[in-house]
Amino acid sequence: MAIETAKSVARVEPGDALALNVRGTGELLMYSIGAARESFELAHRRQPEGSCALLGLAACAAAERRWDAAAAAYERALARDCCEPALALTSLAFATLAAGDARSALEQVNRARGEHPGGPLADQVAAMAHVALGDTAAAEASLRRCGGTAAPLTHVVLTPLHVYPSGEPLRAALAQQPEPVTTASALRPGEDALWRKSSNSENQGSVIVVSPRGGAAVSGTVRVQIGGTAYNRLGYVVLLVDGKFRAVRNLPPFRLALDTKTCSDGGHSLEVKGYDRRGALLGSHTVTVFVNNGVRHTADPAAAEARRELIRRLERCLALRPHPLNQPYLMGRILDRQGRLADAITAFEYVFSMQPTFPGVHPELIDAYGRDGLLAGSGGARVIRQLPAGSRQVALTFDDGPGPAVTPWILDRLDEADAKATFFIVGKQAELYPHLVAEIRRRGHELACHGYSHTDLSELSIIEIERELVKTRAIVRQTTGDLLTYFRPPGGNHDLDVQRAVGEMGYTTVFWSTAVTDFLDQPTERVLALMSGKIEDGAIVLLHNGFDATVDVLPELLSILKKREYKFVTLSEGLGTTSPPARAGYDR
Predict the structure, then answer these.
(1) How much is the pTM?
(2) Across the chain, what does the average pLDDT equal?
């Protein structure tokens, strides 16, 4: 709304370079990168000396992660008269860093800070550069300056790259970047509907405007040259601009002069009509040209100021903005390099849970898991279906939950039987009832992962499966400090992609020897008899932390197994492994 108001006051007309910049900005905000680039290219042709179109082209290149091209465009824009040079310089620093030159990026962001106090992006670029250069103390100080706030995301999502190699690759790339055309040039046919429709297709073959071509930017005195199949029969030609008579010529060569200083800057309809010596119309042709003398509306101070304000607003919109996940991701990298591995993992888990495709976080997380002792990144999970036999022990496992209606009841029954169990919890339920997760842990039971949303994981992509696993692990870590290492797929749905994702995240897949769901629609007595009859030494028993036959059979099942002198163990105890150590949560 503010931009539309400014456009109205500034008298922006279709075809004006400023109007094209407004259109390009709108297209960029809607993620129509190709259309935005075309608009900014046209605006640059209309007004080569302007910075706004170059900033738009830089933003388009950044959205496509063409960082060398983005940095080159920012350099050219800063050579013009930017209304917001500090923002453009900070954006250049980001692109320079992403292109691989941390030292130059740090110099640029320091220059930007000298011109303006800066903002979150400047502080984050400085932090990223310091991390790349190995100075974690300076990186943390820069990141702390952000104060935990992020600028409004007004345009494309931008994130740091995973690796920032040192050296001078960017300067060499910039030296090879060609300067865009800065003189008036005609458009290629079909470049935009605005001037495609301006030509008179019925008569353009008989009398045509050879020069200037449709869509050209013109200034000063323009020579209008005529051609066409009727050229040799012409008696005189007439030039009209926006329907008004401007010039006539009755001798060959039929060239007409137009003083563009008599026209306002912007788009104008240029029409030529050709007549024979008797005054009969032989044909006409109309093209749209764009006057660019740089003197438009100078007599109207309010309009001139409105145009300047509109340009400022556009430059602010086109400046890069920090991604909201930049800060926790950077903090994770800093913590990792400071040797605080557990805190770094928590930061990486948070970022991955929010956006698993965030650049750099996946390899960082896998590497950190590996150094923390998880068998992550192996490409396939270990699968367990029962405990080692010979010690008269069984593992009771409860899927789903937690939930306030059933979980406390199960915990009480287990306490009465002096039994320990493993709870495969659902991540979204843990978010709803963290106090129940903590209570399970307080009573000495083990926590394991049953996915975040309890969906059929075999229907998801690998990265979506990994997110289900990591997000659940992150929620539990922040609630109890436990590191989840056991996983059971919801519904038992398991394929190669699930196996690969589970292994990638360092989990062990646990199935079961017998399950309460094996005896659906059976009377309670029969379920109890059949189920207890299948339990033997080393069994892993699947029950549910919800409303099914579990509620009916659990008390009696516990009694039967105790009479058989079975010991109730958690999975870690039964497998002879140490329970994963508790981790201190990272306060994001």
Answers:
(1) 0.64
(2) 80
Task: Give the distance, in angstroms, between the CA of residue 546 and the centroid of all CA atoms in the same chain.
Answer: 38
State yes or no: pLDDT of 546 exceeds 80.
Answer: no
Q: Is 4 left (phi over 0), alpha (psi -120 to 50) or beta?
A: alpha
Q: What percent of the chain has pLDDT over 90?
A: 37
Q: Token pair of 525, please? A: 């007595």
Q: How far apart are the two ends of the chain, measured CA to CA in Å? A: 35
Which tokens in the block code for residue 586?
Answer: 């990272």
CA–CA dist 67, 62 (Å, integer): 6
> Which one, of 40, 29, 97, lies nearest residue 68 by Cα?
97
Which residue type sits at 507?
Answer: Y
Q: Catalogue the active-site residues.
A: 399, 544
d(Cα 259, Cα 11) in Å, to the nearest integer? Answer: 22
Q: Residue range 337-365: average pLDDT?
A: 91
Asked if 242 contacts 268 with a C-beta cutoff of 8 angstroms, the reply is: yes
With CA atoms as reference, report the closest residue to 155 among 314, 31, 324, 37.
Answer: 31
Confidence class for position 117, pLDDT limits 50, 70, 90: low
Confidence of residue 58 (pLDDT cuts 50, 70, 90): very high
Longest dimension (CA), the chain: 121
Sheet holding 236-241, edge to edge: 217-218, 281-291, 266-275, 236-241, 244-249
Would you say residue 158 has pLDDT above 60? no
The domains located in the chain, with CATH, are 2-180 (1.25.40.10), 193-291 (2.60.40.10), 325-372 (no CATH), 374-574 (3.20.20.370)
Across 465-486, average pLDDT: 93
Residue 211 in this model has a pLDDT that exceeds 70: yes
Contacts 24+ apart (CB under 8 A), 416-420: 416/558, 417/558, 417/559, 417/562, 417/568, 418/568, 419/558, 419/568, 420/444, 420/445, 420/446, 420/568, 420/569, 420/570, 420/573
15-24, 150-159, 547-556: least confident range: 150-159
Beta pairing partners, 209: 226
Q: How far apart are CA 380 and CA 509, in angstroms?
A: 10
Residue type at 13 in one-letter notation: E
Q: Say how many C-beta atoms besides its own lie within 10 A of residue 43's C-beta.
A: 26
Q: What is the pLDDT of residue 380?
A: 57
Burial of 456 (0-12, 13-18, 19+ CB in 10 A): middle
Q: Comparing C-alpha atoms, which of 297, 301, 305 is closest to residue 13?
A: 297
Tell me, what amino acid is at 65? R
Name the pairing type of β-strands 393-399 and 567-568.
Answer: parallel
pLDDT at 469 over 60: yes
Residues 120, 147: Cα–Cα separation, whole Å: 8
Residue 419 sits at φ, ψ, to 5 deg, of: -115, 140
Q: How far apart are CA 218 and CA 224, in angstroms?
A: 11
Nearest to 393 by CA among 577, 578, 570, 579: 570
Instruction: Enumerate residues 6+ apart whose C-beta is below 8 A from 490.
Output: 399, 426, 450, 451, 454, 455, 456, 457
Q: Is the pLDDT confidence value at 446 over 90?
A: yes
